[in-house]
Amino acid sequence: MSTTEERASHSARTPVHKGERIADWADERLGIYNFRFLIRKVFPDHWSFMFGEIALYSFIVLILTGIWLTMFFDPSMSETVYQGSHVPLQGIPMSQAYASTLHISFDVRGGLLIRQLHHWSALIMIGALCIHTLRHFLTGSFRRPREVNWLIGFVMLVLVTLEGFVGYSLPDDLLSGTGLRIAEGVTLAIPVVGTYLTMFLFGGEYPSDQIIPRFYSIHILLIPGILVALVSIHLIYVFYHKHTQFRGPGRTENNVVGQPLMPVYTAKAGGFFFLVFGLLALLAGIAQINPVWTYGPYRSDQISQGSQPDWYMGFLEGALRAMPAWEFTVPGGYTVNLGVLIPAVILPTVMMMVIALWPFLEAWVTGDKREHHLLDRPRDHPTRTAFACSFVALYLVLFFGGANDVLAERFHLSLNQITWSVRIGIFLVPAVTYIVTRRICLGLQLRDRDKLLHGRETGKIKRLPHGEFVEVHAPLDAAQGFTLLDREIREVLPAPAAQHDGVPNPRSRKEMLRHRLSRWLYGGQVAKPTPQELRQALEHLAHAPGATASLNGHASSNGHASSNGHASSNGHAASNGHASSNGHPHNGRPAAVGEREPDQELH
């Protein structure tokens, strides 16, 4: 055998495309081809998932516009006399921070557009994060293994709110200065450490010449850096844990049904980014926000009537206005101001702790150690949904309470009557909202049960031979019937025995607490139809064409899917991405090893 290496002549080789050479060069140095399992990762589709993307894209716009604004903003409290192009303020003493804000708004080309784009992006981001958090809470996606990611999202929501308040305070106008004065009062109301925290934040007695430079550093460095790190960790956890999905045919706790990251989801996400960017630019161009030139520079001896903070701080303003001016003095001469401590410190802390610790409370009550990748419909958990709606109702009552002066002026009402309505509504409105929401959820459960047993209403009226008029019902299709049957109903924990064989139960109090919480969370729900009831329903609907196939062909009586459904344990799609709408290869043959995993679904 010859050991001489034979090579094809240069002219006999197949020419390599330039793009392929570039791809090979990049893969040799970066190993991109080894990450093909990431670019083929499957993501489910649902309209409610877009709120997280809106928050992410708004954050990107915030970073871009914030970098631009730092080139022109001067975070200095040194005094100057304004001589810019805005005539009404010429000759007025003001800080360099306020003067540079006016300079950006009136003298820098496109400055006002970028300022308003930055402000609108902050408002939209916080709003999207609130709805995103609410969606996770209502659907139960915070359960194992996503408790840590829930806490990360909660911390991001708190940090973004603080970031918005700090950035809102930087222009040093009369409106933002009023907000800073309230923040200083809230900090002072904290027992024992309030004065130390005030000196640390403000750098001296209020008003201090250090507050704007300190807030500027926090606004452009500290909080954004933490947010970038948390967003990265949050997205990594989403990739690692797989994306949650709603229940439906072929969807189990071990698979992901949807579109691959490349090229489908990337194209959709990229287009959606430009839609969000365009909408924010449109708002910045036509909807004026935070016109600081109408407020004037901040002076500690002035305040304007009707001053309102940005919407995300409205609940805190309302709580402060609704709380009576209660205070008492403890031995030693220390005054505890309950009129500020309760509404501005204790109430927000309790609200935040309830949101942060709810996943752990629910897991402790149920003792559930399973992993959950399927989402619940809000109606399937009436207590959780009712609690979330009552929480939102409390927030809205406080929000409108923060505008009591504006409401009194615009609608010619008594300010005192509005304030007392808010005080009563804080206790009454959430309770009524809780009761009504829970009854609505139970009513929807009853309607779903009725659909399974009697079919859907067609709107057609039929007259029977003996003269009676009845409405014709049609059987549900397979997908809808399966979704309604796949509802998970958790059993209420039994009451513990006080003693066994004369020996007292040492854990009776703890188990009784769990029993009562379990009864509160999961008691009183509408049961799913039994197999016997479903068989009777099939017999009743047998005269309808395709009734048996619709109800019995794709879902069993216990609500479980057939065993031939395809699942995905890791949510990664095939490298070639070829699949039909039902998850089988187009040619009808089983997929070859390496082409696609047998436990994933594309549609």
Automatic annotation (TrEMBL):
<feature type="compositionally biased region" description="Basic and acidic residues">
    <location>
        <begin position="594"/>
        <end position="603"/>
    </location>
</feature>
<feature type="transmembrane region" description="Helical">
    <location>
        <begin position="54"/>
        <end position="73"/>
    </location>
</feature>
<keyword id="KW-0472">Membrane</keyword>
<feature type="transmembrane region" description="Helical">
    <location>
        <begin position="119"/>
        <end position="138"/>
    </location>
</feature>
<dbReference type="InterPro" id="IPR027387">
    <property type="entry name" value="Cytb/b6-like_sf"/>
</dbReference>
<feature type="compositionally biased region" description="Polar residues">
    <location>
        <begin position="549"/>
        <end position="584"/>
    </location>
</feature>
<feature type="transmembrane region" description="Helical">
    <location>
        <begin position="269"/>
        <end position="289"/>
    </location>
</feature>
<dbReference type="InterPro" id="IPR005797">
    <property type="entry name" value="Cyt_b/b6_N"/>
</dbReference>
<feature type="transmembrane region" description="Helical">
    <location>
        <begin position="420"/>
        <end position="437"/>
    </location>
</feature>
<dbReference type="InterPro" id="IPR016174">
    <property type="entry name" value="Di-haem_cyt_TM"/>
</dbReference>
<keyword id="KW-0812">Transmembrane</keyword>
<feature type="region of interest" description="Disordered">
    <location>
        <begin position="548"/>
        <end position="603"/>
    </location>
</feature>
<feature type="transmembrane region" description="Helical">
    <location>
        <begin position="182"/>
        <end position="203"/>
    </location>
</feature>
<feature type="transmembrane region" description="Helical">
    <location>
        <begin position="382"/>
        <end position="400"/>
    </location>
</feature>
<feature type="transmembrane region" description="Helical">
    <location>
        <begin position="215"/>
        <end position="240"/>
    </location>
</feature>
<feature type="domain" description="Cytochrome b/b6 N-terminal region profile">
    <location>
        <begin position="22"/>
        <end position="247"/>
    </location>
</feature>
<protein>
    <recommendedName>
        <fullName>Cytochrome bc1 complex cytochrome b subunit</fullName>
        <ecNumber>7.1.1.8</ecNumber>
    </recommendedName>
</protein>
<feature type="transmembrane region" description="Helical">
    <location>
        <begin position="150"/>
        <end position="170"/>
    </location>
</feature>
<keyword id="KW-1133">Transmembrane helix</keyword>
<dbReference type="Pfam" id="PF13631">
    <property type="entry name" value="Cytochrom_B_N_2"/>
</dbReference>
<feature type="transmembrane region" description="Helical">
    <location>
        <begin position="340"/>
        <end position="361"/>
    </location>
</feature>
